[in-house]
Amino acid sequence: MCVVWGIPYLLIKVSVKHVEPSVVVEGRTLIGAVILLPLAFRQGQLRPLMSCWKPLLAYTVAELAIPWLLLSDAEKRLPSSLTGLLVATVPLIAVVLVLLTGHHDRMDSRQIAGLLVGLVGVGVLLGLDVGRGDLGSVGLVLLVAIGYATGPLLASRYMGQLSSLALAAVTLALVAVAYLPVAIWQRPSSPPPGTAVASIVVLGVVCTALAFVAFFELIKEVGSTRATVITYVNPAVAVVLGVALLGEPFKLSTAVGFALILAGSWLSTAAGRVRSPRRDPAGG
């Protein structure tokens, strides 16, 4: 998951140079839904979702519908690597949400320290890289991070017993239907280049369809808060790809930040096994 969800920042950056953010969101969700819906239907896994349509809708809005549009819009102005680094605030936001909602994942002091160390790493990485003109886009990415922290909490609390395949298929289909009118209205006047089309296809197949099934299983296995720790390693992938393929800058602060983020990720995940209170009923 760390690798698969570190790639989208590069793909989104390439895509939004040629198409509007709504088209990127529509493309990846439509592809994902087309792949997963027939599989979920064939296995008879869609009907049980009707019993929890409210949290399902809330999850769809928090994890996909709003964040993916804001992320794509922010990347029109921010480097893909910086965007990935900002999203690394998700685990700390998740801890705050867990405390506020009383949904305890039994995190110990070592794991909380790991989250804080990782956040310091993000601060080091940001350093002087954020200009005053970029603050609006930074704010958009922080809203994305709040959504990414809220989504797993909803999934863990209300939908742990449901099929991961069905959840992914239906949420993607809902977003695809919602964005279709806007995407048609904002479609490019001429065919985009092959790089943009290929980026959206990979986003849909690998980083959306396959990744979401795996992510739901990860939430069931380790709990919502630990699942978000993958966003500490995602930035490393985003920075490497941004520097290697897009020529984005690599500074000493980046290397130091990498070390802190990886240390925070290790501390957060190595300190014993964290069990979500919903894990046993879900069957793991």
Structural commentary:
The chain is mainly alpha-helical. It has one domain (8-282). It has 13 helices and no strands. The chain has helices at residues 8-15, 21-42, 53-74, 80-86, 90-101, 109-126, 135-158, 164-185, 194-222, 224-227, 234-246, 252-270, 279-282. The radius of gyration is 18 Å and the shape is globular.
Secondary structure elements and pairings:
Elements: H1 8-15, H2 21-42, H3 53-74, H4 80-86, H5 90-101, H6 109-126, H7 135-158, H8 164-185, H9 194-222, H10 224-227, H11 234-246, H12 252-270, H13 279-282
- Number of helices, counting only DSSP H or I runs of 4 residues or more: 13
Structural class: mainly alpha
Q: Calculate the terminal CA-CA distance, rounded to whole Å.
A: 18 Å
Structural shape: globular
The share of residues in extended strands comes to: under 5%
Rg: 18 Å
Helicity, as a percent range? over 70%
Average residue pLDDT: 83
Order of helices and strands: HHHHHHHHHHHHH
Reported for the largest beta sheet, the result is: none
Low-confidence stretches: 271-284
Count of discrete domains: 1
User: How many runs of DSSP E, i.e. beta strands?
Assistant: 0
